[in-house]
Design brief:
The complex is a heterodimer. Chain A has helices at 6-26, 33-54, 60-80, 86-108, 115-142, 156-177, 180-198, 206-228, 231-254, 259-268, 288-296, 307-311, 315-327, 346-353, 364-367, 389-392, 443-455; strands at residues 300-305, 331-336, 361-363, 376-380, 411-416, 436-440. By secondary structure, chain A is an alpha/beta fold. Chain A folds into 3 domains: 1-80, no CATH class; 98-268, no CATH class; 288-455, TPP-binding domain (Rossmann fold). In chain A, strands 3-2-1-4-5-6 form a 6-stranded parallel sheet. In chain A, β2, α14 (346-353) and β3 (361-363) form a beta-alpha-beta unit. In chain A, α8 (206-228) runs antiparallel to α9. Chain A is elongated and about 75 Å long. The relative contact order of chain A is 0.09. By secondary structure, chain B is mainly alpha-helical. Chain B has one domain (25-95). Helices cover 73% and strands 0% of the residues of chain B. Chain B has helices at residues 3-20, 29-39, 43-52, 57-86. In chain B, α2 packs antiparallel against α4 and α3 packs antiparallel against α4 (57-86). The radius of gyration of chain B is 18 Å and the shape is flat. Mean pLDDT of chain B is 87; it is low at 90-95. Classes of the chains: A alpha/beta, B mainly alpha. The interface between A and B is large, with 109 and 81 residues.
C-alpha cells in the first residue's frame, strides 16, 4: 500500500530509531530496564506498521502468515523457557537474526550496483552466516548437546585460515561480478567459518562469544540497511553493533579475559589445560547434620551460589536457610561472582526472585576482603568461580579470571551433585583441601536437609 | 539517499551506541545483551520489503524464510528480555 507520503514514513522511522536509543539507555539501569525493553518493542511495532502502510508490497498475505509462523514459534518458547536456559535462547534468536540478514542481502544482490552496495552485500552475507552458525554452536554448547570444553579439530588453524582466504576471494568475486550464486557460496563458507570460530571457545567463555556474535549480527543488519537504503535498519543495526562491542568488552573484563584470548587462545595451545577425568584422590564428604552444625554455630557465613543452585531451583530454600541462620545470630552474606551461573547477573535475578534483600548480595570486590573473617564459606553448586587454579595455574583455561577467595574462610562447604568438574571442565584443587567438606546431592535436596537439621539444633 | 549520507548516519550511530551503554552494571549485562539482540530483529523490516517485491518464486520462498527467522528474533527477543526483567520488579520501589 502507498497510504503514507514519504515524509511521514521517514518521520515514523525516526520515531522508531529514537525508541531504540531510549530502549538501550533504559536497559542500562535496573530501575528503567523493563520500561526500556517495552519502549524498544513499541518502536519495532511502529516501524513494522509503517513498512506495510508505506511500501508497495505483493504477497502481503503470505508475508503475514510467515510473521505469524515466526511469532507462533518464538512466543511460546520464550514464555516457557526456564531461567537456566535463557542464555541459549538468546543465542538462538541472535543466530536466526543473523541468518535473516544474510538471506536478505543475498536476495538484494541482484538489484544492487556500485562498489559500496556490493561490499555491503558481501559483508552482510558473510557476517550473517558466521553469526548464524556460530550461534548454533554456542546453543549446542550451552544446551550441553555437545562438549562444553574447547574443541580443536586436527589442523584447525589451517582450516580457519583456508576458510578466511576462501571468504576473501569469494567476496572479491562478488564485488567484481555481482553473481548471486557466488554470494550463495560465500554464505556457505561463512557457515563453516562460524562453526570453526566458536568450536575452540571453552564453556565459561561462551556468554562472551554470544555477546560478540550479537554485535556482529547488529553490524550485518546495519550493512543490509545500507544495501536497502533504509535508515532504520542502518541505525538500529549500528546501535546494536556499537553497544554490543562495549558490552562484550565489559563482560570479558569482568572475567579478566581478553576477547582475542577467548577466540584464539585455544588455537595457540595452552588454553586447553584441565581434565574431565574424575580423580580418585580422597575427599571429605559428610552428612547434612554435620554441615548444619558448622553453619549453626558460625558467626559469619558467606554463601557462594552458582549454576547448581539455579538448576535445582533451590533459591527459595537457600533464602529460608539464610533467614533461619540469621534468627540464630549468624550473619549471612551472599558473595556474587559476576559470571556465576551461565550468564552475568544470573544469581542476582534468581535470588531477587526468592526475595533475598538486595543489601545481602555483595559483589566480588566487596566480599573477598571479608572472607578471612568468615567461619564458613558455603558454596552451593558453584565451581569454576571459586577455583584457585584461576590464580595459581597459568596453563589453566580460567587462569586470570578473578575468583571468590573462599579458601580464605576457616571452613569451606561444597554442596555438589558429584565430583564432576564445573562448566569449564577443570579440576578444583580446593575440593581436596583438609578444611573442605563436601555434601553430595541435588542442591535443593541438600539444602532442605541442612535446613531441617539447623532447625533441630 | 546517497552513500555518503548513509555513511555519516552510520558513524554518528556508532558514537550513540558507545555512549548509551557506557555505564552498565554487570547485573544487567545479560538483559542488555538480550534487549540489543531483539533490536537487531528489525531486519524483519528488510525481509518484508524483499518478500513483498519478490519477482520469482525462489526469491519469494527464500525471503519468506527470512521473514520467519527475523520474526523469531524480533518478537522472541523482546518477550524473553521482558521475562528476565520481570524478576527485577518489586525491588525498584524499595531502593
Amino acid at each position: 500500500m502507498n497510504l503514507l507520503p514519504t515524509t511521514w514514513t521517514g518521520l515514523l522511522y525516526l520515531f522508531a530509531t529514537v525508541c531504540f536509543i531510549l530502549a538501550l539507555r533504559g536497559l542500562s539501569s535496573p530501575r528503567t530496564a523493563r520500561r526500556g525493553n517495552l519502549i524498544g518493542a513499541f518502536g519495532a511495532l511502529v516501524a513494522m506498521v509503517t513498512v506495510f502502510l508505506s511500501t508497495a508490497l505483493d504477497n502481503v498475505l503470505l508475508i503475514l502468515i510467515a510473521i505469524a509462523v515466526g511469532a507462533a514459534i518464538a512466543v511460546p518458547v520464550s514464555h516457557r523457557v526456564k531461567m537456566t536456559a535463557m542464555p541459549q535462547l538468546v543465542a538462538l534468536f541472535n543466530g536466526v537474526g543473523g541468518g535473516a540478514a544474510a538471506l536478505v542481502a543475498l536476495l538484494e544482490l541482484r538489484s544492487s550496483s556500485g562498489f559500496g552496495a556490493l561490499l555491503a552485500v558481501a559483508f552482510t552475507v558473510l557476517v550473517g552466516a558466521v553469526s548464524f552458525a556460530g550461534s548454533g554452536v554456542t546453543f549446542a554448547k550451552l544446551q550441553e548437546m555437545m562438549t562444553t570444553r574447547p574443541v580443536l579439530l586436527p589442523g584447525q588453524r589451517w582450516l580457519m585460515g583456508a576458510s578466511l582466504a576462501a571468504a576473501l576471494v569469494l567476496a572479491a568475486l562478488v564485488l567484481a561480478t555481482g553473481q548471486t550464486w557466488l554470494a550463495a557460496v560465500l554464505l556457505v563458507v561463512g557457515l563453516v567459518a562460524g562453526v570453526l570460530l566458536v568450536l575452540p571457545v571453552g564453556g565459561a567463555d561462551v556468554p562472551i562469544a554470544i555477546s560478540l556474535l550479537n554485535a556482529s549480527t547488529g553490524l550485518a543488519v546495519a550493512a543490509s540497511g545500507f544495501v536497502l537504503g533504509n535508515v532504520l535498519l542502518l541505525v538500529g543495526g549500528t546501535l546494536v553493533g556499537a553497544s554490543g562491542t562495549i558490552l562484550t568488552q565489559a563482560m570479558a573484563a569482568a572475567m579478566g579475559r581478553s576477547v582475542t584470548g577467548i577466540l584464539f587462545g585455544a588455537l595457540k595451545g595452552g588454553s586447553t589445560a584441565g581434565s574431565t577425568a574424575v580423580s580418585d584422590r580422597p575427599v571429605r564428604s559428610s552428612s547434612a547434620e554435620d554441615v548444619a552444625i558448622l553453619l549453626g554455630y558460625a558467626g559469619r557465613v558467606v554463601v557462594v551460589p552458582g549454576y547448581g543452585l539455579a538448576v535445582a531451583q533451590a533459591q527459595h530454600t537457600m533464602a529460608e536457610l539464610a533467614s533461619t541462620l540469621e534468627t540464630r545470630g549468624t550473619e549471612v552474606i551472599y558473595g556474587i561472582h559476576p559470571v556465576a551461573g551461565r550468564m552475568p547477573g544470573h544469581m542476582n535475578v534468581l535470588l531477587a526472585e526468592a526475595n533475598v534483600p538486595y543489601e545481602a548480595l555483595e559483589e566480588m570486590d566487596q566480599v573477598n576482603p571479608k572472607m578471612k573473617t568468615a567461619d564458613v564459606a558455603l558454596v552451593v553448586g558453584a565451581n569454576d568461580v571459586v577455583n584457585p587454579a584461576a590464580e595459581t595455574s597459568p596453563g589453566s583455561p580460567i587462569y586470570g579470571m578473578p575468583i571468590l577467595k573462599v579458601s580464605d574462610a576457616q571452613q569451606v562447604v561444597f554442596l555438589k551433585r558429584s565430583m564432576r568438574p564445573g562448566f569449564a571442565g577443570i579440576e578444583n584443587e580446593l575440593l581436596y583441601e583438609p578444611k573442605t567438606t563436601l555434601l553430595f546431592g541435588d542442591a535443593k535436596e541438600s539444602l532442605t536437609k541442612v535446613l531441617a537439621a539447623v532447625k533441630n539444633l | 539517499m546517497d552513500g555518503v549520507a548513509l555513511l555519516t548516519i552510520f558513524v554518528l550511530a556508532v558514537f550513540v551506541g558507545f555512549e548509551v551503554v557506557s555505564k552498565v552494571s554487570s547485573t544487567l549485562h545479560t538483559p542488555l545483551m538480550s534487549g540489543a539482540n531483539a533490536i537487531h530483529g528489525i531486519i524483519l523490516l528488510g525481509s518484508v520489503i524483499v518478500a513483498g517485491q519478490a519477482d520469482s518464486t525462489w526469491v519469494l520462498v527464500v525471503a519468506l524464510v527470512a521473514v520467519v527467522l527475523a520474526t523469531m528474533n524480533l518478537v522472541g527477543g523482546f518477550v524473553v528480555t521482558d521475562r528476565m526483567l520481570e524478576m527485577f520488579k518489586g525491588r525498584g520501589g524499595e531502593r
